[in-house]
């Protein structure tokens, strides 16, 4: 089991939740047993999951809401029951974040392509170092999410992230696209929505492949679901 922890500043809360639920659905579509943990006080992942269940009859993955130390306790008890556990948690220094860092295998850091937002990742470095004293196997992947289609902001933000020794930078940004919002309000992932944007699917797919390693599955699932929806 791999525990993935999408992390963001409070400014990017909806951005990291969008990434978390799309990753959970991606794994579910690949017939993996997935647990999505909503560890954020805003509860956006839980709200989305409820909408998805009402729309489709079942979300396709298991979802629970946990806070604080119970994240660590419950993940330790549940990690052998699921092939993948994803934790959606606020990026601020909270008991929920600290608990999640002690049990996560991979920390995913989606950053907005703005200098101030990237600078706000600095406090996370100290948390990561502290967590690695307990969880020495914790790896960290950062990427630009909700990025601009083009422009120097992406390049400047990427350059800053690359300088941070505690982060491995994923060099393919996920651009801010309406397809993600349209899919979310329908209770779907960007791969499932019939009016989705192929560029959005491709960009998200690159990152999912980087994490999970199943490029052919991503492509076949995307096209199969689009054809089924037409």
What do these coordinates show?
The protein contains ten helices and eight strands. It has 230 residues and is of the alpha/beta class. It has a single domain, classed as 3-Layer(aba) Sandwich (Rossmann fold), CATH 3.40.50. Helix 1 crosses helix 2. The C terminus is likely disordered.
Summarize the structure.
The protein has about 230 residues and is an alpha/beta fold.
What share of the residues lie within helices? 40-55%
Largest sheet: 8 strands, parallel
Please tell me the overall pLDDT.
Answer: 87
Kindly report the name of the CATH homologous superfamily: P-loop containing nucleotide triphosphate hydrolases
Terminal residue distance? 35 Å
Subunit organisation of the chains: single chain
- Count the domains: 1
Taking Cα atoms only, what radius of gyration do you get, to the nearest Å?
17 Å
Number of strands: 8
CATH class: Alpha Beta
**CATH fold description:** Rossmann fold
Poorly predicted tracts of residues: 226-230
How big a fraction of the residues is strand? 15-25%
Envelope shape:
globular
- The CATH architecture can be given as 3-Layer(aba) Sandwich
What are the secondary-structure elements, in order, as H or E? EHEHEHEHEHHEHEEHHH
Number of H/I helices: 10
Structural class, judged by helices and strands?
alpha/beta
Question: What is the strand and helix layout of this fold?
Answer:
Layout: E1 2-6, H1 13-29, E2 34-38, H2 44-56, E3 62-65, H3 69-78, E4 84-88, H4 95-103, E5 106-111, H5 115-119, H6 122-134, E6 139-147, H7 152-162, E7 168-169, E8 174-175, H8 178-185, H9 198-212, H10 215-229
Parallel strand pairs: 1-4, 1-5, 2-3, 2-4, 5-6, 6-7, 6-8
């Amino acid at each position: 089991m791999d525990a993935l922890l999408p992390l963001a500043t409070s400014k990017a809360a909806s951005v990291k939740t969008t990434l978390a639920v799309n990753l959970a659905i991606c794994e579910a579509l690949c017939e993996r047993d997935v647990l999505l943990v909503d560890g954020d006080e805003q509860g956006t992942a839980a709200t989305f999951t409820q909408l998805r269940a009402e729309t489709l009859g079942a979300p396709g993955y298991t979802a629970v809401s946990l806070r604080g130390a119970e994240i660590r306790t419950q993940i330790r008890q549940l990690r052998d029951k699921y092939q993948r556990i994803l934790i959606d948690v606020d990026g601020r220094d909270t008991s929920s974040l600290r608990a999640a860092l002690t049990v996560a295998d991979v920390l995913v850091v989606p950053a907005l392509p703005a200098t101030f937002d990237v600078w706000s990742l600095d406090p996370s470095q100290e948390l990561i170092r502290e967590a690695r004293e307990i969880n020495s196997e914790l790896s960290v992947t950062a990427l630009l999410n909700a990025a601009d289609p083009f422009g120097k902001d992406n390049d400047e933000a990427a350059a800053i992230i690359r300088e941070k020794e505690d982060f491995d930078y994923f060099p393919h940004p996920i651009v801010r696209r309406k397809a993600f919002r349209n899919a979310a309000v329908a209770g779907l992932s960007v791969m499932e929505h019939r009016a989705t944007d192929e560029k959005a699917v491709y960009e998200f797919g690159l990152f999912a492949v980087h994490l999970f390693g199943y490029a052919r599955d991503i492509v076949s699932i995307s096209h199969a679901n689009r054809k089924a929806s037409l």
